[in-house]
Amino acid sequence: MIPLISICIPAYKRTDFLQRLLDSILCQTFKDFEVVITDDSPTNEVELLCKKYEEKFKVSYCKNKTVLGSPENWNEAIRRAEGSWIKLMHDDDWFVDEYSLAKFANRISDSHSFIFSGYNNVYLNTDNKVSSYLISSRQKKMLQNDPYNLLKQNFIGHPSTTLIKNSLTEWYDNSFKWVVDIEFYIRYLLENRQYAVIEEPLVNIGISSSQITASVFRNPDVEIPENIRFMKKMKKGVLKNIFVYDYFWRLIRNLSIRNETMIAQYYSGEVPNVLKKIIQHQKLLPCSVLKTGFISKPVMFVSYLLNRLAGRL
């Protein structure tokens, strides 16, 4: 019998985190699910842990023949899923309580194929400090009007907050690590504008220094080539959206890129003209001044207008 939901877990080493997630799955009141675990670990610790749960719920475990890395390990778990809906869960995240999965399932409808909930950020390195996030009414309108507005702020959150209909042949782009979730959400929602929001935190997101996002944050080796490839994948004219323009403005500013030579250290291809102009405009002010918000925003707006009037957007 085909399960309604496949909980897909790309695993790597951290069995203490994974056990917490599996325990949170075990106590769910909603039972029409399977768990699919694809394992990138060099040892058999994850496999041994999974065996302990085989008699408690349906577990499909696969040891990857080669290390796939993120996000291809996500894709591998999804490819092996039999459920009608995909609930990707990273191994350091877990459900808030025993009703979380039921609340996701209750929102399933033929009128939409993408569901996401609120979430709690749990800071594992600071005594489990918790901050909750729920999308606002204004943000929902922004998301509905143009999914590229996610570049202003990721209103959806981590992939663990989502439940997506299992109808795709292409999921997460494995050439990305830093922008991988945002790029997927935008690509998906441009084709499927109907989504549902659960305005309640249903997932705890474990925030720690061991995460991939922590290792690539403000890393120009990752952020520069990924974001240029991201820009080149975007539909024509999208930079006319000022939030998209500001996203790339902040990229150059936050990495203190002052000339094209600095870009060439991290990216060997052709640099888009609009990025060259952003660099030229930012060079007019010291980095320390640019990083002051009330100065950066109006300067960015002038740069945006100049590039738009010149037809570069």
* Net shape: globular
How would you characterize the largest beta sheet?
A: 9 strands, mixed
Mind telling me the C-alpha Rg?
21 Å
- How far apart lie the N and C ends? 51 Å
Q: Write out the CATH superfamily name of the largest domain.
A: Spore Coat Polysaccharide Biosynthesis Protein SpsA, Chain A
Order of helices and strands: EHEHEHEEHEEHEHEHHHHHHH
Q: What CATH architecture label of the largest domain applies? A: Alpha-Beta Complex
Beta fraction:
15-25%
Q: What does this protein look like?
A:
The chain has two domains: 5-213, Spore Coat Polysaccharide Biosynthesis Protein SpsA, Chain A, CATH 3.90.550.10; 218-309, no CATH class. Helix content is 39%, strand content 19%. It is built from 13 helices and nine strands. The chain has helices spanning 15-26, 45-51, 72-79, 100-106, 137-145, 180-191, 212-216, 220-233, 242-254, 260-264, 273-282, 287-290, 293-309; strands at 5-11, 33-39, 59-63, 85-88, 93-95, 114-123, 129-133, 162-165, 195-207. Strands 1, 2, 3, 4, 5, 6, 7, 8 and 9 form a nine-stranded mixed beta sheet that branches. Helix 9 crosses helix 11 and helix 9 packs across helix 13 (293-309). 36% of the residues are buried.
List keywords for this structure.
9 strands, 2 domains, 13 helices, 313 residues, 39% helix, Spore Coat Polysaccharide Biosynthesis Protein SpsA, Chain A, nine-stranded mixed sheet, alpha/beta
